[in-house]
Amino acid sequence: MTTAGDIAELAGIAALAGGLATAGYFVEGLRPTSQLFGRCLVAPPNPDEIALTFDDGPNPRWTPQLLDLLAQYNVRATFFLIGQFAVAQRDLVRRTHEAGHLIGNHTWTHPNLFRTDRRQTRKELDETTNRLQQITGTRVRFFRPPFGARRPHTLLIARELGLIPVTWNVIGNDWNAPSAEAIVQRVTRLTDKNHRRGNATNLVLHDGGHRTLDADRSRTVQATGELLAQYTASRRFVTLDAWEAYGHA
Fold first, then answer.
1. 3-state SS string for the chain
2. Strands 164-165, 49-57: parallel, antiparallel or unpaired by DSSP?
3. How many angstroms from the chain centroid is the CA of residue 79?
4. Which residue segments constitute the domains of the chain, with CATH numbers given?
5. Of 55, 56, 174, 207, which residue is the catalytic one?
6. Which of 101, 106, 110, 210 is catalytic?
7. d(Cα 122, Cα 130) in Å, to the nearest integer?
8. Which of 8, 102, 154, 197 has its CA at a distance of 20 to 30 angstroms from the CA of residue 120?
9. 97 an active-site residue?
10. Per-residue model confidence (pLDDT) at position 25
11. Which stretches of the chain score pLDDT less than 50?
């Protein structure tokens, strides 16, 4: 016989299970290497390759310094641009593209796409792609969700718009790092870990900040110079289009 106490206990277990399921869903929506909601490009089993990527630009002060630094080492990177910042810095976007770097979509306003509905998600991606293509005259094929946050419809919409979703397997935490040395130490530790495991490194740094056009990225620039000096002799730097085959569902 099922008593009222049994029913209450079962209800409590069901509520706990539902809460855990919701928490798990949220975690998977933020975990950069998760493929639960659909295919995302992370990194192939090419341990000697590094894709150096920068998010949240363009930044009128710090992006040009990064471009000069990359040119010094003859390295091409991938820049995921915020649409509204790109429109405000058209010449800088063109300079980045003309220097041989790959331009990617990082949405129009940098929202958390785990929280946006289908209509807003599509608008964020579509408007950014259209504006970037107008500025550069080149098709945009790669998209990185802000914060790495996505839901099943996020990736579905991206694919419908001809975009390959990209996450990462190393992030420098450079937006709040206490020093360039802290960024370098973290990136080196995680990059070398990927290498030991037989994987390439898809590295995220930030040339901008989503809250303001001119965020201070002096530590990122310094850290980038140290990382380039450290790895250019032993690793091959690539743009994400070199790994495009690994991003298809």
1. CCCHHHHHHHHHHHHHHHHHHHHHHHHHHHCCCCCCCCCCECCCCCCCEEEEEEEEECCCCHHHHHHHHHHHCCCCCEEEECHHHHHHCHHHHHHHHHCCCEEEECCCCCCCCCCCCHHHHHHHHHHHHHHHHHHHCCCCCEECCHHHCCCHHHHHHHHHCCCEEECCCEECCCCCCCCHHHHHHHHHHHHHHHHHCCCCEEEEEECCECCECCCCCHHHHHHHHHHHHHHCCCCEEECHHHHHHHHCC
2. unpaired
3. 9
4. 49-247 (3.20.20.370)
5. 55
6. 210
7. 12
8. 102
9. no
10. 58
11. 1-3, 5-21
List the structure tokens of 234: 């032993």
Can you tell me the distance from the alpha carbon of 131 to that of 247, in angstroms, rounded to the nearest whole number? Answer: 23
Q: Is 56 a catalytic residue?
A: no
CA-to-CA distance for 137 and 156, rounded, in angstroms? 25
Tokens of 216: 């201070």
Whole-number pLDDT of residue 24? 60
The structure tokens listed for 39 are 């295919």
Question: What is the model's pLDDT at position 220?
Answer: 98
